[in-house]
Fold this protein.
Amino acid sequence: MPRLLSVACVLLASIVSSNALSCSGASASDVAVPLLPSVEQHIALPSPLSWPHWLRLPEPVANEDPDSDRDGISDGLEAEIARRYAPSYAVSDRDPCPLHGLLYRVSPHPRAGLLVVRYVALYQHDCGARGHPGDSEVFSALVNPSVPPPEGILAVRAIAHQGTLCESVMTCGAVPGCHPCETMQREGRPYPVVYSSYGKHGGYLSLQVCNFSFVCDYGGCTPRTRPDDAPMVNAGESGYPMVSDLTDQGFVRPDQGWSEPSLMHFDPWSRDKFGGAGNVAKDLRDPLYVIDPGRCNP
C-alpha cells in the first residue's frame, strides 16, 4: 500500500506545479517553516487593530468591543474577518457525513499589517473505508484587512490528511510563485475555494488534484452551487482561549444535529484528540499555516 500511495503521489505531482503541491513523502512537520518570527511568540499589533474603513458598524459596537484573547484584535472584528475573508468551503452535496462546524483563530501575522486566519473544520464522522467518530481538516488564509474581500485574501493554504502518507500541501493566491486560486461565486464575487473530499474531508485547492487522488480520497471532490453555511466559533489564543467546551460554548450540540457521545464537551485547547482525528490544539498552533507573503512554498 505505501508503494501504491507513493506512485499516486508522483502522478499527482506531475499534473500540479511544485509551487502548489508537496507530496515528497515527508509529513508537514518535516517541511521547512517560513523564515519568519513565530506567531507563537504572541506578537501584538503596535496598537489595537481598528475597524477597516470599508466595514461600517454602529459606533458603540466598534468602540466597546472587547479583546478577550488579548491579541490586539477585538472579538467582533475577529468574527467579521473570519467570516468575510473565509475561502468558500465546498463540501460535496452527496457527502454521506457532511455535519461539521468551523473553529477559527485570527492572529496578527509576523509581517506588520497582515493577519493569519486558521480554520479547523470539525466533522462528526469520517466516512472513509476505516471511518471513525470525529474528523478534522485545516486550512488557512493570509489576509490584508485594509483591503475588502475577496481581494484582501492574499493566499490560501490547505493540507489534506496531514501527518499521513496521503498528505498533500497546497498553497494558492497572489504571493510570489503561487498559482491563482480556483474560485467560487459568493455574494456575487469570486472567492478562493477549498474543496472537501467525499467522506474523508481532505482539503484541496484544486478540483483536479482531489479527483485524481483516487487512493486517498475515493469519490473525489465536487463543486458546490452554494457556499457553506456551517456554524463558526472563535478559538481565541492558546494563553487566552475563548472556548473550552464545544458543547456548552460551540456547535457540537444535539440541537445542531450532533449525537456522537465521545465528541461532546470537547476542549479544543486540550491535549485530547477529536475522536479518531488529530489534536486540534496542535492544528491551531501549527506554524505551517502561517503563509509567507514573500513566497508560495512553505
The two ends are 27 Å apart (CA to CA). The longest strand covers residues 115-126. Residues 2-289 form one domain. The chain has one domain: 2-289.
